[in-house]
Amino acid sequence: MPIYEFRCGKCGKLFEELCSSSDRSKSVPCPKCKSRRTERQFSVFGMGGSVRSSGASCSSCSRPSCAGCGH
Fold it and tell me: I want to staple 9 with a disulfide (CB 3.0 to 4.6 A). Which of 3, 23, 28, 37 is the partner?
């Protein structure tokens, strides 16, 4: 089951919820205020800041690794 991020329209709380594909159309209650005025947010998935273990240089700059350069 995928994890989705939600924002409450009443209190503004951001939270995550496990939802099956059949639950996607159902409203998810806010864990803080119990409101059902919640909406799914676009999740940002990133691998930024990871250090390459191969020792290969960064293809985007001249550093020996991407640690600290944001690539």
Answer: 37
Residue found under tokens 């806010």: 30
- Tell me the three state secondary structure of residue 40: strand
Q: Is the pTM of this model over 0.90?
A: no
Residues whose CB is less than 8 angstroms from the CB of residue 3 and which lie 6 or more positions away in sequence, other chains included: 16, 17, 18, 19
Q: What is the pLDDT of residues 20-49, one digit of tens each?
A: 777 767 889 999 999 999 999 876 665 555
Q: How many domains does the chain have?
A: 1
In-domain check, residue 59: no
Q: Is position 47 within any domain?
A: no
